[in-house]
Design goal:
Layout (H helix, E strand, L loop, with lengths): L13 H10 L3 E5 L4 E3 L7 E7 L2 E6 L5 E7 L4 E2 L1 H4 L9 E4 L3 E7 H5 L9 H25 L5 H16 L3 E3 L4 H8 L3 H13 L3 E4 L2 E4 L2
Antiparallel strand pairs: 1-8, 2-7, 3-6, 3-8, 4-5, 4-7, 9-11, 10-11
Helix pairs in contact: 4-5
Amino acid sequence: MNLSNTLLFRGLQDKEIDSLLGCLNAAKHSYKKGEIILSEGNITENIGVVLSGKAMISCSDIWGNSSILSAVPPGSVFGEVYACIPGQSMLVTVSAAEDTSVLFMNVGRVLTTCTNACPFHVKLVRNLLTVCAHKSLQLSQRIQHTSSKSIRGRLMSYFSECAKQFGSNSFLIPYNRQQLADYLNVDRSAMCNELSKMQKDGVIEYNKNHVLLKT
């Protein structure tokens, strides 16, 4: 993963990034599929950048019912909101959806100009603000997708957004069936039945996580 291609380090040169990583006490960690990266209730001072693999952000109620909030692909960031609020316990759990490598950085050193007075440090702060804004937008989109009372309505809202992002009616979604059901807050069996009906009705074609919207 070339960090200069990520939103957090956009506009920075490789030499500048290397210098910043030293300032931020950056450390790389690896996780096996299914392993917890950050747990609900924990307090973190670190921002995580997924270098490879994929992480999932989820939350659970007291009865153990889980809901997927978002997927975190390579180059994306997690934990930034909680790390920016000292002492704030996490309301979500971050886990590895597959074997995943993560780069952690201390947020206090991101928000405070380092003693070396790096001239490019301000770029990182601006990029962090952009990352937070993107996360806010993603949560707003999930609220929109789950606002429909019907499963088909929720699926079509989500698929429509995916088509816009990919610029094509043919796209891959980052979730398996259970994860998609959790993300849309619906029953998995009912959702799978609705997907089959939508395919029979000629609305979509799908194979695993590949979806084609018919127009």
